[in-house]
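Step 1: inspect the first sequence and its tokens.
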Amino acid sequence: MAASRPLQVRLSGIGGQGLILSGRMLAQACMTGGSYVAQSQSYEPTSRGGVSRSDLVVSEDNSAYPLVTHLDALVILDQSAVGISEAIIDTDTVIVVDDDLVPKPPGGALHVTRLPLIDEARRLRNPRVANVISLAALVILAELCPFEALEDAVERLTPAKFRVRNMDALRVGEKLAQRQAA
């Protein structure tokens, strides 16, 4: 029996939004289920106006090519990050964008879900948890891995002093996605 096509995911925005950490959390959650994960990243500091991204290729076996060539799932947390993914998305790509910071998401007949990610993070009194909110929403909407595996990964990879904040953010993202799916 042939292995299925690898799942390809990108988390994108600007430097300082925690996207590299979110990528590590998602990679850990996927590996918990026995999948192989190749992760790559690009980071430019916010001070330089830089775009940041974390890419994952998730497969049942060692993938022959560890870099994304087509996206199955995508998060965009800043307008400046829209262009870096447009060539590798299509109508099957599950796209989650912040409805405030991404006023012009990728166009066309695409499946774009606009969510108040930054607003919800501010409601939690910490705009820096938008990455975890978006990750939770994407995992549910794109069915990337069992949500329990993501919970475990977030709990294990978050420093103790931020753990409660990130777990609260995870719950907010879960609720946003569940409302969207209903």
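Step 2: inspect the second sequence and its tokens, then contrast the two.
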Amino acid sequence: MTPTVDFSGLQITYDERVLEPRRWTADQSRWAAELMSLAPPGPVLELCCGAGHIGLLATALTAADTRRHLVAVDLNPAAVTLSTANAAAAGLDDWVEVRGGDMSEVLSDREVFSVIIADPPWVATEQTTRYPEDPLLAIDGGPDGLAVARLCARVMQEHLHRDGVAVLQLGDLDQVDALDLTAYCLEVTEVRAGERGVLASLRRLGPDARPA
């Protein structure tokens, strides 16, 4: 039987092909929901969505009359299947579109998002054996743990609204600093430490701002 976990009121189904939803990651959902209430009009993008729980909770926490369309993206076909099913189970399927494939290829050049949520794998490859219960694709962030995070930053650079905001989850503050977000014309506006990992809110930096 496929396991289901209560994720701050949402029933999220997952299996061994994706990362089990962690209770503490709901902090990212709540922060994203707060920012969605302040961001300019436009859709929301979730990168590395896994079972879909973070983006779905953020959407569920938004009042129905101000709710935004969510595009959830993951490379893993299992994540696409599970996110789609979880959106339907939560009654949010009219608000959610799930896309499978490379994040740099599944978005059109003209798509702009007012809020971007990203929860990339951030464990360094040599450290992944410490987490044998987790699927490798969901946790392996490359030699320094930042390979996928850099891809997320590139997508933010290309698709974040000029007045938009992003919420990125990483392992610790050192990773936030090492990511060198200014290279992607992004700046950190706030960092919050969680039970595990850190969350950083990002906005566009300087003249690279994309037109609305």
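Step 3: confirm your contrast with the notes below.
The chain has a mean pLDDT of 95. The chain has six helices and nine strands.
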